[in-house]
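Appendix C: a fully annotated inverse folding record. The material below is reproduced so that readers can follow the format used throughout the book. The structure is listed first as tokens, followed by the designed sequence.
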């Protein structure tokens, strides 16, 4: 069976489980379950700490896993990213008291507190900066106030916590992260069920990002409408009972749907509607 590592808790866990369910896989009913066997799809799921998943996959103990890009890079595990999964977005940045620094180049000789020592050390090395890395497991934003560090490097979402600690971000982002599917480095996608898992997850992403759009339009206006919404390959066009009219069906990006509906109306489309896509293969 294909052995898949899934985050057991934290921000990645619920979203990963939801995506796997949408992809047609069985998932655990309680967080107390550490493993689950989906016999119908020949997959075994192992629920592990997100930080440990890259290590298990990199060692070949498990075939693939879902983790954060930041955690994978921080672990220095022997693992490669197969694909991004479209959730768990975050940005890793420097922060300090106002005026503490303007860029990574200003950090030479300073103490930098972080929970992501691997990512930070790599970034400092890439920029030729010699600084002291103070590794903490949590509450990094308190490190400056408590005198443990001069600045910090941490995941930033809204920045509210940083402002409450009297800190502000500076410089370019160190890393932009998201949830990713990973495999062991140098290993081809050969285990049974691997290709199926990737195709299914790709299908979920497409279904989430696209909608099906249907509309009626005069046959003479089809070319103008197709120029607005060409679809992935080309629209499906069927004749209507009303002479000279056709029905058109096309896939469009969800984020663009309202704008495209306005434009299609302008070129003569009527009875325009959108429907969700629950599963697909492209």
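Designed amino acids, in order:
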């Amino acid at each position: 069976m294909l052995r898949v590592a899934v985050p057991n808790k934290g921000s990645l866990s619920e979203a990963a489980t939801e995506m796997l369910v949408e992809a047609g896989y069985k998932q655990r009913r309680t967080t107390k379950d550490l493993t689950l066997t989906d016999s119908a799809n020949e997959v075994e799921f192992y629920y592990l700490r997100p930080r440990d998943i890259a290590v298990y996959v990199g060692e070949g103990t498990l075939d693939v896993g879902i983790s954060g890009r930041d955690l994978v890079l921080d672990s220095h595990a022997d693992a490669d990213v197969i694909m991004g999964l479209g959730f768990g977005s975050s940005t890793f940045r420097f922060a300090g008291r106002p005026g503490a620094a303007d860029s990574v180049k200003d950090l030479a000789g300073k103490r930098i507190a972080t929970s992501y020592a691997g990512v930070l050390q790599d970034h400092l090395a890439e920029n030729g900066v010699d600084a002291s890395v103070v590794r903490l497991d949590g509450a990094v934003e308190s490190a400056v106030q408590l005198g443990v560090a001069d600045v910090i490097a941490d995941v930033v979402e809204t920045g509210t916590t940083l402002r409450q600690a009297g800190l502000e971000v500076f410089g370019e982002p160190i890393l932009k992260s998201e949830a990713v599917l990973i495999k062991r480095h140098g290993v081809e996608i050969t285990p049974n069920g691997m290709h199926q898992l990737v195709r299914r997850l790709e299908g979920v992403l497409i279904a989430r990002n696209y909608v099906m759009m249907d509309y009626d339009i005069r046959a003479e206006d089809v070319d103008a409408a197709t120029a607005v919404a060409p679809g992935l390959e080309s629209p499906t066009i069927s004749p209507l009972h009303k002479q000279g009219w056709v029905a058109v069906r096309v896939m469009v990006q969800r984020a663009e749907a309202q704008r495209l509906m306005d434009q299609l109306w302008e070129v003569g489309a009527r009875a325009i509607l959108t429907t969700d896509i629950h599963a697909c293969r492209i």
